[in-house]
């Protein structure tokens, strides 16, 4: 069985990463709700993850092919890291690739004491992935009555306003 590798993204590869991530998130949304003109994951949101302090971005490579990617934010001092983005390339979902990407992340950062990530409430597939496949726990539910303190606007990305503030926050602690 081939091993999945995380390869750092170069400046020249950022646009490919952004397009593939946007396609994956758009497909996930449109599979549930139908076509949407607005991009669910705007370029600016992905760029802000690239620009975050401690940010590291990777393509996931399997059999010399890009199968997905990730952006993580590493806090090497406190060892409390964030998973900003993980995507599996359109056309190869449901084959365990996302789980391989997550395992490669954990292998790359074995000293992490805590991982944190977020996903929208509507995306049951992602919720299942993080909780049942990767071992995260839901620790907070953001909504209109309990807003994410880091959320700047009322609308997140290109999500419709009626569902854009409904997000879960997940954590995964290292088991000693």
TrEMBL record:
Q: Which InterPro entries match?
A: Acyl_CoA_acyltransferase (IPR016181), GNAT_dom (IPR000182)
Q: Enumerate the PROSITE patterns for this protein.
A: GNAT (PS51186)
Keyword entries, A-Z: Transferase
Residues forming the N-acetyltransferase domain are 4-162
Iron listed as a keyword: no
Molecular function (GO) terms for this protein are: acyltransferase activity, transferring groups other than amino-acyl groups
The identity of this protein, by name, is GNAT family N-acetyltransferase
- Species of provenance: Lactococcus hircilactis
């Amino acid at each position: 069985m081939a091993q999945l590798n995380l390869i750092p993204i170069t400046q020249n590869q950022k646009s490919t990463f952004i397009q593939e991530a946007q396609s994956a998130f758009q497909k996930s949304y449109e599979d549930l709700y139908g076509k949407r003109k607005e991009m669910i994951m705007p370029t600016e949101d992905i760029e802000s993850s690239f620009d975050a302090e401690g940010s590291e971005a990777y393509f996931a490579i399997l059999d010399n092919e890009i199968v997905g990617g990730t952006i993580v934010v590493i806090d090497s001092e406190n060892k409390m890291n964030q998973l900003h983005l993980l995507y599996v390339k359109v056309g190869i979902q449901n084959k365990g690739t996302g789980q391989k990407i997550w395992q490669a992340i954990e292998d790359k950062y074995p000293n992490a004491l805590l991982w944190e990530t977020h996903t929208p409430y509507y995306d049951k597939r992602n919720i299942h992935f993080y909780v049942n496949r990767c071992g995260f726990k839901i620790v907070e539910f953001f909504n209109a009555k309990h807003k994410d303190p880091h959320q700047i606007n009322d609308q997140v990305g290109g999500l419709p306003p009626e569902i854009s503030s409904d997000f879960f926050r997940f954590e995964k602690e290292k088991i000693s």
